[in-house]
Amino acid sequence: MTRTELESRIRAFIEARADGSRDEGTRDALLNDIAAYQSAHVEPYRRLCLAMRGPLRAPGPRLAPAMPADVFRYARVASHAAELDVRVFRTSGTTRESRGEHPFRSLALYDLAAEAAARHMLFPDREKMRLVLLAPAPSEAPDSSLSYMLGRFASWFGEETTWAIREGRLVIDELAVALDRTSRDGAPIALLGTSFAFVHALDALSARSFELPAGSRIMQTGGFKGRSRAIDPEEMRRLLGERFGVREAMIIAEYGMTEMSSQMYETTLRDALAGEVEGPRRLWVPGWVRATPVDPETLSPVEGDAVGILRVDDAANLDSVAAIQTADLARRVGDGVVVIGRAEGASPRGCSIAADAALGGAAC
Amino acid sequence: MLIDLSSVQARASRLVGVGQELFELGLERRARSLARAAEHLRALGAEPAVLARLAESSGLSVEMTRWALESTLETVDATTLLGVGRAALELHPTLRPVPARLCAIVLSGNVLTAPVRAMLLPLLVGVPVLAKASTREDVLPKLLLDSLEETDPALGAACDVITLQGDSPSTGALFDQADAISVYGSDATVRAVRAAAPATSEVIAHGHGIGVAYVDGVPTSADELDAVARPLGEDVAAYDQRGCLSPHAIFVRGPEEDAKRLARAVHEALAALAIERPRGRLPLSSASAQLQWRGVAAARGELHEGDGFAVSYEGEHSLRISPGYRNVAVHRCAGVDALVDALCPFGVHLKALGVGGAAVRAREVAKALEAPLAPTLCALGAMQRPRFGALADGHPPAYGLVRFVETDLAAR
Predict the structure, then answer these.
(1) CB contact under 8 A, B346 and A74
(2) What 3-state DSSP class applies to A364?
(3) Pairing status of strand B402-406 against strand B95-99
(4) The model's pTM
(5) Which of B297, B240, B291 is nearest to A295 (CA)?
(6) Are B289 and A54 in contact (CB < 8 Å)?
(7) CB–CB contact A345 B242 (8 Å)
């Protein structure tokens, strides 16, 4: 199967699943075909697939090998030559060697997947609204996939957009002005950003609080790894809800990775807007993505709602590797997953971060 | 049993109170009693129920636990202890030793037998010990204390073991009366202890670290290759590669094919050890890290997996810290200078360097090491079996425990 044929199939499948419907048989067949293509065209994945055929792997029907996300830090993971890159997204980190890289030959599938998922889960009730973004604009962070995505959101969903992080600093006055304005004129906003930026904003806003109009929503993404402060997700929602006057159902987390093209969103916002009874808070998995907690030794899916290490198969990841093994702990909840936290390697050595940074392999 | 602030203070005061008596017992009595205590602990550890408890608390298999106890306690004999004690206390005829009044020890629970040297060395040089055991692993420290009390009550009276909650305010009380504080743990733990320690206390840091092995030329014959690979396997498998001395990588001087041969040979050695001394349980977080590590190895090099271990060949790619649990990478290097360049970033965290191979040049390696590198240099197979009196973190054994007063004014 050629790239063009695969791309066409993936595109059609994403478009068909944009309404939230599922077709797991077709999805799995597509993912298998993508894996077969990538095992022939993406050198690190080819090597991984060869290595994973050893006798110690679990017998029986198996998923295609998943590429541990760390590989993006140590090898070029792409089916195309570097001169064909239209964009390279990089993970956070302090040195060039420590940052994972995800090269893209085309952002068409990324855009398609991102718009479909966000429209379904984050903006199911309106075409456009005011956006206030606690992240740097793509012009300031050209290798950030989050900034890119939010920049696309501005085009697709933004009636008007305020970027509240400029030159690495939170522009608190502009943030406050945007929030005051919306409180006055009653037009709801979507406040989107990284968890850490929200913490920074809460600190900077000091005692100020707001009553954002009904329909306003908050999306936070990313954790606190490497930061000096970390806040429990429930506590974070409570703080955000109190400070911005947004009910907790309208505050959701987004799960995305530099190594992926697709995103997953918590379900409560869509459920609340649809007037549905809120089920347990969980991440909605788009129909073109498979999210599987696996046993880290056997690599087999864990049973029921047991905790495993999250594996994500993202059909939109055509030009790299669709099957990604994360280091996040997760479990199935209903029709979705809950990410519990990062399964940091139990490094018994406090030197690991320092030495890792010196060696160019810093955890980021 | 977790104890409170006033109890910590009371215990510390009591220990300080018996310091003079401990010192006056004399080195010979102390050495012989400590050796008997080690023998007593060895016998205790051989009891199936005790062995099972130690294995359970440490996370090691019963077979590895047995090996760990044997290989550590066999180094604690009276002759060795006397030699170490004399070297520490008898620097010069005109120098009178002044032992610390109390050594507070913060144990990390990372390596099962670390408490043995940590607790016995201060007692050997006449310093009472107040050891704070990790809540994860307090079985061995308490068994050691029991053995001391059983074999020589006077020595037992100079030692105590407590367990505290992580951020307990009692932690400060642990240090208040200690002239010496020996801390085992991460950089963050060491930093916290330094911050909490009185200004007059000597903080002896045994921070976390790693080991590396260097093979200077891979032998051509199968027997000689096995004679290199088997000790390497021992070094990697010991303590399930969780210790500060555990080798994370093996550097090989020689052509690529030789390095790959060695990788395969180490794989075989680990396969045998997986049966003799199986790996203990693998925590979920470590399993996740292992998955990431092995994936990178497979993607950029060659990965040889086994049941509970893996060896990779990664050429001249940058060194990566292993997740432990018997995952080791083999790298090529051009020689000693290239080795030192690769090791420099680790600084004081490089704790052990095992050397071997067809053209072993340990002296050349030792001379080539640049500051601050000061690992314990040893033969392959001995990386995790340091002598009781070996240097630790580049320091003499009794570093920080004894000071001296010049008695002959004319001598200076």
Answers:
(1) no
(2) coil
(3) antiparallel
(4) 0.90
(5) B291
(6) no
(7) no
